[in-house]
TrEMBL record:
The keyword Nucleus applies. Residues 1-115 form the PHD-type domain. Residues 291-319 are annotated as: Disordered. InterPro entries: EPHD (IPR034732), HECT_dom (IPR000569), Hect_E3_ubiquitin_ligase (IPR035983), PHD-type_Zinc_Finger (IPR051188), PHD_PHF7/G2E3-like (IPR059102), PHF7/G2E3_ePHD (IPR042013), Znf_FYVE_PHD (IPR011011), Znf_PHD (IPR001965). Gene3D superfamilies: Hect, E3 ligase catalytic domain, Hect, E3 ligase catalytic domains, Zinc/RING finger domain, C3HC4 (zinc finger). This is G2E3 ligase. The keyword Transferase applies. Pathway: Protein modification; protein ubiquitination. It comes from Rhodinocichla rosea. SMART domains: HECTc (SM00119), PHD (SM00249). GO terms for molecular function: ligase activity; ubiquitin-protein transferase activity; zinc ion binding.
Length: 728
């Protein structure tokens, strides 16, 4: 390394060791980050992560004049930032001497004498407890190698364990292992020198990490298997297709071995059947099935009909669903004779589940309708976007900082067409997949905002009070990013609380917060204690205990009757949820005014709440099917059937790809943007060997095949390999 002079290659301690042959340069990443005399003056894809080569040469020359106070050798590029302290040292020497390096803001360094320390209360018990990461004992001592949790009184960790955990979990998943607190925990760990990389967790980045979950049980377990090719033989769409138990899924049978006429008929293994028999439910179910089969066919059948939640069956058979879809352009598709009415018409169901499913369906349909209206409104706003492009150079390892830099650059305009170019230290992506890059960028950006310190809460989030973020105008930037993302094809946020949304569209003075809006556990507990006080004396005692908090909040009032607690609770809620964040809220609202989004939200509040307060609809076979317009004719009925059947296989897990993979293959996006796709996705059936995803036109070209299995194999092979190559 040109800065520390060591040849060690230890990424956990010194960062990645990088060699640039063209510059005749080798450097440890952390040595470069922590050097006192160098700054990132270039773009992320220039030099070494924005550090220009000329600046690195100058820093090496500067450090060559400084002697390390630890090893006494030249080249000490890092200095202690404490006033009047003149100690200099190499990064590895500083680690060895227990210096602290803060991987945030200005990347400050503190020598062993001036390093920050954690405060230990005199009342805290001395002794030892278990480190919840390595499960070995850790002593409760104020030493460099031991860190305590800022959010849990009895949580202690080895520094080395925490650093390995942070490198593995990344910024999105690194949190207290005891209480799961993220913001307070990360802030303290960064202050104490733990490096938290701004990337996804290592287990999320590992290729095929969840491959085992896609394996389906395929073995015939009946006493007498009739298949000559063995119990493990499985041939789909034939009598030798293996059907799994509808309850446990861990037993199977060939259709022929259990006299099943098709996979639409459900089957139970002996173990599950015996459980039902003991509970007395099996005989009742048999009677229901018998009655249903007699009503539909006129002849008794001892095979039980499928329940509403059959794994491979939606509300109707694939072909009947295909005929009802409004997206088919042709009118001459006809149903196959062996597929009859939808399963829901043939199954006897108790009234209560029907009513609950009906209510859920109504709500689901209502949200879909609202999101369609949002889509049309956002398209009106997109008229402002010009053909002139603005390119954002995004560092894949530090998306938030590079996004912030891009949005703040002088040439950035929300009305320009946005192109995203991802880069990192190893390679540079080309802009010919700018659509896919842009979709991915907005998706990761929204995820970062959702988990950032700007918001607080578990599910429906409210704005938090972060003075540093307020000082850096980050609330405005967050609002601006959300507005730009929605108009330029990003995903719906889906994480706002209804209270926050009402504050944005109606104004904070018109909103009445609830206890669920309080994210701070201590404050929530205080409010609960006041709210559920059952006597005047217990209420006054509680107020005395939290007198300091109530005074600071401006909520301290004389209490003469038990009913006064309701007004007091209301005051605390209004202060903590609304008044406390007046400045962040106003700044955030100003950001949302970008491209006229906030004005539209205020005009159509009910419509926009569907994308701000509710999570996006999970992709289903039906959703993806309706998304595409099929250009078809009467001679390719089978191809359309194959397409629907394949989507259902993917949804039920009988595939190596996901519905998100299919969408990504065709459009470059793994989600449906709030504004929809432009142009709208289409499907063509052509005489080609393998499927083709045309992302410029959002068109999926599918091969015509005679057999469904042949169609499925071609889809699996093409989509899996294409996406794998892109990821590599």
């Amino acid at each position: 390394c040109v800065l520390c002079g060591r040849t060690d290659d230890c990424p956990e301690k010194y960062g990645e060791k990088r060699t640039y042959v063209e510059y005749n340069l080798t450097v440890h990443y952390y040595c470069l980050l922590m050097s006192s005399g160098i700054w990132q003056r270039g773009e992320e894809d220039e030099g070494v992560d924005g550090f220009l080569i000329t600046d690195i040469r100058k820093e090496v020359k500067r450090a060559a004049k400084l002697k390390c106070n630890i090893c006494k050798k030249k080249g000490a590029s890092i200095g202690c930032v404490a006033p009047k302290c003149k100690r200099s040292y190499h990064f590895p020497c500083g680690i060895q001497r227990e210096c602290i390096f803060q991987f945030m803001e200005d990347f400050r360094s503190y020598c062993w004498e001036h390093r920050p320390v954690q405060e230990f209360m005199d009342k805290e018990p001395r002794g030892a407890s278990q480190c919840t990461i390595c499960l070995d004992l850790v002593e409760h001592l104020p030493v460099y190698t031991v860190l305590k949790s800022p959010c849990c009184k009895n949580a202690w960790f080895h520094r080395e364990c925490l650093q390995y955990q942070a490198l593995s979990a990344g910024i999105f998943f690194f949190r207290c292992t005891v209480c799961n607190n993220k913001d307070k925990f990360q802030k303290e760990m960064l202050r104490m020198g733990i490096h938290i990389p701004e990337r996804d967790a290592s287990w999320e980045l590992e290729e095929n990490a969840y491959q085992d979950l896609l394996h389906c049980y395929q073995h015939c377990d009946v006493k007498r298997c009739l298949c000559k090719k063995g119990r493990d033989y499985n041939e789909p769409d034939s009598k030798w297709e293996i059907q799994r138990c509808q309850y446990c899924g861990s037993r199977g049978t060939h259709l022929a071995c259990s006299s099943l006429k098709s996979w639409e008929q459900n089957w139970e293994c002996m173990e599950c059947r015996s459980i039902f028999a003991k509970s007395g439910k099996y005989s009742k179910r048999k009677k229901h099935a018998l009655a249903a089969s007699e009503n539909s066919n006129g002849t008794p059948c001892l095979l039980e009909e499928p329940p509403p939640k059959s794994p491979r069956q939606s509300s109707g058979s694939p072909r009947s669903f295909l005929l009802q879809s409004p997206k088919i352009m042709c009118q001459n598709l006809s149903p196959c004779s062996h597929l009859e009415q939808p399963a829901s018409n043939r199954v006897t169901v108790s009234p209560s589940p029907v009513m609950s499913n009906w209510n859920w369906s109504l709500r689901h349909k209502y949200l879909r309708q609202q999101r369609k209206e949002v889509c049309n409104i956002l398209k009106e706003l997109k008229v402002q976007v010009q053909t002139k492009t603005t390119r954002l150079n995004i560092n894949a390892e530090n998306i938030w900082s590079s996004a912030l830099k891009g949005f703040r650059q002088r040439i950035f305009s929300p009305t320009n067409t946005i192109e995203v170019n991802f880069s990192n230290c190893k390679n540079r992506s080309k802009t010919n997949t700018s659509s896919a890059s842009k979709h991915h960028f907005f998706q990761v950006l929204m995820l970062h905002l959702q988990n950032s310190s700007l918001f607080e809460g578990s599910f429906g989030k409210n704005l938090s009070l972060d003075f540093q973020a307020l000082k850096e105008n980050l609330y405005f930037e967050a609002g601006k990013m959300i507005a730009v993302s929605l108009v330029h094809g990003g995903p719906p946020p889906g994480f706002f609380s209804k209270t926050l949304f009402k504050c944005l569209v109606y104004g904070p003075e018109s909103v009445k917060p609830a206890l669920e809006d309080v994210a701070d556990v201590d404050v929530a507990q205080t409010i609960k204690t006041i709210k559920y006080a059952n006597s005047l004396s217990s209420l006054q005692s509680t107020l005395q205990d939290c007198c300091e908090f109530l005074t600071a909040a401006g909520c301290l009032r004389p209490v003469t009757a038990l009913c006064d607690k309701n007004m007091l609770v209301n005051d605390i809620l209004i202060y903590h949820v609304i008044k406390r964040i007046t400045l962040p809220l106003e700044s955030f609202r100003q950001g949302l005014k970008t491209l006229g989004l906030l004005e539209k939200m205020q005009t159509h509040p009910d419509v926009f709440s569907s994308i701000f307060c509710y999570k996006p609809e999970r992709l289903s076979a039906e959703t993806v099917y309706n998304l595409f317009t099929i250009h078809s004719s009467s001679d390719i009925n089978e191809g359309a059937d194959f397409w629907m059947g394949y989507l259902q296989d993917v949804e039920s897990g009988d595939s190596v790809v996901t519905l998100e993979d299919i969408l990504l293959f065709v459009t470059g996006s793994s989600y449906i943007p709030a504004i929809g796709f432009d142009p709208e996705p289409t499907i063509k059936f052509l005489h080609i060997r393998y499927p083709i995803g045309n992302r410029l036109l959002n068109c999926l070209e599918l091969p015509r095949t005679k057999m469904y299995q042949q169609f499925k194999n071609k889809m699996e092979l093409t989509i899996r390999n294409t996406l794998r190559v892109e990821r590599e």
